[in-house]
């Protein structure tokens, strides 16, 4: 049984350790904030917030409190606010331990494409290029295949790249994969998902 979005986010939250400063990308990664639990994790939003809380309950939204994806969020008793220059100084200066990002494609060597599809209207790169270059660990959370059923784990990306050789671990609805020498290594599978099913839906080399 493949994981749903919330189960993928909960699995991604297991990657986090006490004391980490972590950036969450747009999409499924934003859900990770709901699964941090008792861990002492400080979430950073590149629009200028350190100490991001989980999503608010309905009726408790503050329209002035948003993440980089323009979703309403909550603050904590230790939340700090600052401008974008300070935010990207943290990212480029190596102060953020991990980024959990979405993706359109990931290649078997860790190349990441997550910001545009040619011919479609885009808002721009955002902070993704800085994040993959500046953080210690990049975890991608995404569906294993696109809406057409085509794999998103490829031998080589076909879309414009965000970064080359930057992805460390991939969490999809089918399982968890590490980028290793020669391809992708299966670390864990979702319940009742077989290695054969994963191989049939993966173009990248499984080692």
UniProtKB/TrEMBL annotation:
InterPro entries: 3-oxoacid_CoA-transf_B (IPR012791), CoA_trans_fam_I (IPR004165). It comes from the Bacteria. SMART domains: CoA_trans. PANTHER family: KETOACID-COENZYME A TRANSFERASE, SUCCINYL-COA:3-KETOACID COENZYME A TRANSFERASE SUBUNIT B-RELATED. Belongs to the 3-oxoacid CoA-transferase subunit B family. This is 3-oxoacid CoA-transferase subunit B. It comes from Maritimibacter dapengensis.
């Amino acid at each position: 049984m493949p994981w749903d979005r919330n189960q993928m986010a909960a699995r991604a939250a297991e990657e986090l350790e006490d004391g980490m400063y972590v950036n969450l990308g747009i999409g499924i990664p934003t859900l990770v904030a709901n699964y941090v639990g008792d861990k002492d994790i400080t979430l950073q939003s590149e629009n200028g917030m350190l100490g991001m809380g989980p999503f608010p309950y309905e009726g408790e939204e503050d329209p002035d409190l948003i993440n980089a994806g323009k979703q309403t969020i909550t603050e904590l008793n230790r939340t700090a606010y600052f401008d974008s220059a300070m935010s990207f100084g943290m990212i480029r200066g190596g102060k953020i331990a991990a980024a959990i990002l979405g993706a359109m494609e990931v290649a078997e060597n860790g190349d990441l494409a997550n910001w545009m599809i040619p011919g479609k209207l885009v808002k721009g790169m955002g902070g993704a290029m800085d994040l993959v270059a500046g953080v210690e660990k990049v975890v991608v959370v995404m569906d294993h295949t696109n809406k057409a059923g085509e794999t998103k784990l490829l031998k080589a990306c076909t879309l414009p790249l965000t970064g080359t050789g930057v992805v460390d671990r991939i969490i999809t609805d089918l399982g968890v994969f590490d980028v290793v020498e020669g391809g992708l290594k299966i670390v864990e599978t979702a319940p009742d998902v077989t290695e054969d099913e994963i191989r049939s839906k993966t173009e990248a080399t499984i080692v």
